[in-house]
Amino acid sequence: MDFSSRYGHIVIGLIACSLILLGKLFYIQIVDDRYKTDALNNSIVREIIYPPRGVIYDRDSSILVGNRNSFDILVTPREIRNLDSLSLCKVLKIEPEFLREKLDYYRNYRSRIGYKTLTFLSGIDEQTYVDFSETEYLFPGFHASMRTSRDYPFNAGGNLLGYVSEVNADYIKKHPEYKSGDYAGMTGLEAVKEKELRGVKGYHIYLRDSRNRVLTSYNNGEDDLMAIPGENIVTTIDADLQQYGQSLMRNKRGSIVALEPSTGEILALVTSPGIDVEDLENMGSRYQALASNPDKPLFNRPVSASYPPGSVFKLVNGLIGLQEGVCRASDMESCQQGYYYANGKKLGCHKHPSPIDYQQAIMMSCNSYFCAVFKDILENPKYANTAEAFDAWREYVLSFGLGAPLGSGIPNESAGSIPSSELYNKFYGKGHWRFSSVVSLSIGQGEIGATPLQIANLCAILANRGYYYNPHLIKGEKTEKHYCKIDSLHFIPTVDAMWKAVNCTVAEGATASLAAIDGLDVCGKTGTAENPHGADHSVFICFAPKEDPKIAVAVYIENAGFGARWACPMASLIVEQYLNKEIGTKRKWLENYVREADLMNVEK
Amino acid sequence: MTSKEIAKIIGAYLLLVLIGWLSIYATGHSVDEARSIFDLGSRAGKQFLWICISLCVSAIILFVIKAYLWEVLSGPAYLMILILLALTIVFGSEVNGSKSWFSIGPIRFQPCELSKISTSLLLAHVLRNKAFGSGSLKNLALVLSVIAIPAILILAEKETGSTLVYMGYIFVLYREGLSGMWIMLLLLMVVLFILSIRFPLWVAFSVLSILLLSYYVFIRIHGAKSFKLRRKLRLLCLSVMLLGSITILSTDYVFHNILKAHQKQRVEVLLGLKEDPMGAGYNVNQSLIAIGSGGLKGKGYLEGTQTTYGFVPEQSTDFIFCTIGEEFGFIGCFILISLFVFLIGNILKLAESSREPFNRIYGYCIASCLFMHMLINIGMTIKLMPVIGIPLPFISYGGTSLLSFSIMLFIFLALIKQEKRYF
User: Are A207 and A41 in contact (CB under 8 A)?
Assistant: First the structure.
């Protein structure tokens, strides 16, 4: 052959390229040990290491949600060989029928399953796991695996925390970074903080011999990837208080919200009836029952339910009246069991001394007084017409954090609703409505809605005398300070009146004396929210102590009648439990009275 | 003498097809346990059917069809395939991201496989008529467009692998008189491209400058063969420098904007910029483990674990070489590659000995095609090339591929066999 011809060059090139291929092959097959598995016919197996999910703590570093080991049996259908089905059933303590069904499924869908590994049994007990692990090599294709599952030391905050479950096909479609077999937070905090809690999966590569027994780490574990545990989360929840609130709320429909006024941190967020932490663990089997329960335990009332605020809203109207200068704290009004707002039309009030001043009106929760205040607000000569005055009023109301979500980061937060003049323009026609058309807003009824969280936030504003921080659940979350458009000066008579409402005697006209706790200076306001669907809701807000308040509470109990009767004692118990860490002996009867009450089955 | 060579080639072909069939059986072996190698429901069974079809077609080509017809038909065939390629872009069905399958009723095939035959035929026809070494620009343009038109259509089908095979025609052109400079230039550009991705730009620039400078000095001292080169040496060096610089500077743009995300990842994995054994690098890593674990002698036929446990994807088609590497080890790989070299070498030898330029050029064409397929496919399984999905000739599972390679080879054998030799 002539190697100097072009033909020769091409042949040389052909041989050279082949030698390069062979050289590399020689290297990886003979020189380099990296790809070696020994002569015993081993194979390399990759095992996913699931990272432990982040722990959720309460404000005092008690664990709200921790982790616990749970054991699964996985199966790779294509690797099943010579299956001794009877002894498998025996060691796993399952029925042969169950195994047969599973195997039929694997056979029918074999092309779709391919070489994937599926969960065969989940949540087996530790003894079964140990028994199976010892005999695992007898069942090629089956593999025991340990993973961590959620553990709940307190029965507290089921709705708040949310549940974790294995991702389904829909979830994977929306979140392509997940693979079948992964777990993810589906609701509540677990869903909101999924990114932090999740951690990063790792894998472990090891060698398996022909009898499917694990031999050694592959490449001394150098190619393994360690799992990175999820981040821990510290919440603002007080686990004891949350649990206590839930125990008080048993057999009642409603919510409790407790805030720390100076920071906006949520101390407790109770919804009732709610999800037990036991349900969270077994959401897969309980979900249907929970979702179809007419009492809606999946509905997180404190942030999602919007009710008319009722009499507690009088505080807002009173403050706006003082700020606008249309009333003074010393103004007296008479009340003859009602207020005539149009010819022959009367908005009723309960029996109480008359005439009364601003503080007494709050203390006794007089309807007439606040109708008069609201009338003066809307008919303020400063504004050209009612609509303009109404919009000015609305601006004030919005500055109390009402009418818009508070940005707590809790899923499904409702905005509540504060009507605007446009609504009435549309309904009555422009210029065809006036104070008498919207009189029920004076006492927090009518076209107005607020969530318990917003009402608790209102209570925090009163406690702070004029500002609030966004309520939040995560400790250290940056929140903004919002001032409402009322001078702190006007809060002095208002807060004093709230103090009197609790701490004066019934004879003096106090409406909430059940909430009085020795040495705590509780300030409160009752509310009775009429609602079109049934009996009135019992509402109460309070904070304590009066100076330098540590806790602000709002309680809503649906269809429970007067605020003073149920919501008021319950809120005061929350305050006492939080500040004194126990209920005084003098008030034990009250605790029992509230706890034993069954208000879910009252007539509607 | 020629009949002996033809027999050698047919022998090598049959051996390769047999190895392929057995390997396909091995990849499916433990998945569908105890299936017969003839079971038409399995891939091995289907491949057997295709082998029978290919052998019949080959026999017809070799013994029945008059060989001169191929040159006569080269033009119309080429046009027809071009139309098919264009139709595929519009109507084709998508498989694994490339839109290169054409279906007529129950039959599905890849026109780009057939296109290699028609392009080779027409190229041989054009080249033998238009002398190439004369330096006529018009001829050069004609020849290049014969190659480039189907290549561009195939690229539009997103069949990057087959397009790369078309680069192999440069060897044919070289044999027919194209200056070797062009191959060197192509190689240089590939090297520069890789260097600029892998290292800072100044490395690529210095390599380019040092190479050119030493070439310049070498020619200055030893003198050039051709007068033309001696005269234009400085101009040549400058233009190569310019071309190289453009390559280096445009690398970043090409790499990040023109290459698809998965192609980019594959290149990154190849160059070791990215270790991603579970993602983009999964195929290659599994393939390396499979081949590497074969050792010198391999694990024995049907005893491979990596391949039968299904760790390597595209096992019976593009990554078939893994099975051979794992089950027969280095010895098996050596034999397989030697068989390919033997086959290609003998085709070249026959082509060289032919008196008909058409036969010679066509022979070079198919040798180039086979060579490119072998180089890219095996190279990809052992991480010498980025992952590009093209079959290993005669070995990989796939009807169109086997049939078209057989047709391609046997047209050449028929041409040689029926060539009139007067002395």
Answer: no
In angstroms, what separates the C-alpha of B162 from chain A's closest C-alpha?
A: 19
User: If chain A, 604 residues long, is cut into consecutive pieces of 10 residues, what is the mean pLDDT of each piece?
Assistant: 80 93 90 61 66 89 87 83 85 88 84 73 84 85 80 85 85 82 85 89 69 61 79 91 91 92 92 85 80 86 89 92 89 84 81 86 89 90 89 93 88 89 89 87 89 94 93 87 90 91 83 85 88 82 91 90 82 92 88 85 53
A200 touches chain B (CB under 8 A): no
Q: What is the pLDDT of residues B356-405, one digit of tens each?
A: 889 999 999 999 999 999 999 999 888 888 888 889 999 998 888 899 99
Q: Which distant-in-sequence residues (6+ apart) come within 8 Å of B28 by Cβ?
A: B35, B42, B43, B44, B316
A31 reaches B (C-beta below 8 A):
no
Residues of chain B in contact with residue A17, where contact means CB-CB under 8 angstroms, are 371, 375
> What is d(CA A78, CA A103) in angstroms, rounded to the nearest whole number?
11
Is A120 within the bounds of a domain?
yes
How many DSSP H helices and E strands does chain B contain?
15, 3
Residue A1 lies in a domain: no
Closest partner residue to B352 (CB to CB) among A7, A18, A114 is A7
CA nearest to A111 within chain B: B31
Q: Does A15 touch chain B (CB under 8 A)?
A: yes
Which one-letter amino acid corresponds to residue A248?
Answer: L
Q: Cβ(A257)–Cβ(A249) under 8 Å?
A: no
Q: Which pLDDT score is estimated for A38?
A: 42
Chain A nearest-CA residue for B311:
A115
Contact B340, B370 (CB under 8 A): yes
Pull the structure tokens for residue A329. 């704290």
Looking at the fold, whether A269 and A185 belong to one and the same domain comes out as no
Q: Which residues in chain B (287-326) have CB-CB distances under 8 A to chain A?
A: 288-289, 291-296, 299, 303, 305-306, 309-311, 325
Q: Which of A15, A25, A225 to mutate to test the interface with B (most CBs of B within 10 A)?
A: A25
Residues A364 and A391 grouped into a single domain: yes
- As a whole number of angstroms, the distance between CA A33 and CA B295 comes to 9
- In terms of domains, do A567 and A583 share one? yes
Bridge partner residues of B260 (DSSP): none
Domain boundaries, chain B: 3-420
Residue A204 lies in a domain: yes
B357 part of contact set with chain A, CB < 8 Å: no
* A192 vs A337: CA distance, rounded Å: 50
β A56-57/A233-234 pair status: parallel
* Probe site for chain B from A3, A26, A35 (most B CB atoms < 10 A): A35
What is the three-state SS of A335-401? Answer: CCCEEEEECCEEEECCCCCCCECHHHHHHHCCHHHHHHHHHHHHCCCCCCCHHHHHHHHHHHHHCCC
Phi, psi for residue B171 in degrees, rounded to 5? -70, -35
User: Could you tell me the pLDDT band of residue B338, with boundaries at 50, 70 and 90?
Assistant: very high
| Chain A neighbors of B382, CB-CB under 8 A | 21, 24-25, 28
A576 lies in the same domain as A529:
yes
Show the tokens assigned to B100.
């290169």
* Residues A452 and A469 reside in one and the same domain: yes
Sign of CA dihedral A269, A275, A276, A277: negative
Which of A10, A13, A41 shows the shortest C-beta gap to B299?
A41
Structural domain of A150: 45-234
The residue of B132, B324, B352 whose CB has the most chain A CBs within 10 angstroms, and thus the best one to mutate to test that interface, is B352
**Cα–Cα distance, B299 to A167 (Å, whole number):** 40
Band the pLDDT of B267: cuts 50, 70, 90.
confident
Residue of B nearest to A82 (CA): B33
- The verdict on A10 touching B (C-beta cutoff 8 Å) is yes
Report pLDDT digits (tens) over B304-319. Answer: 666 555 556 667 788 8
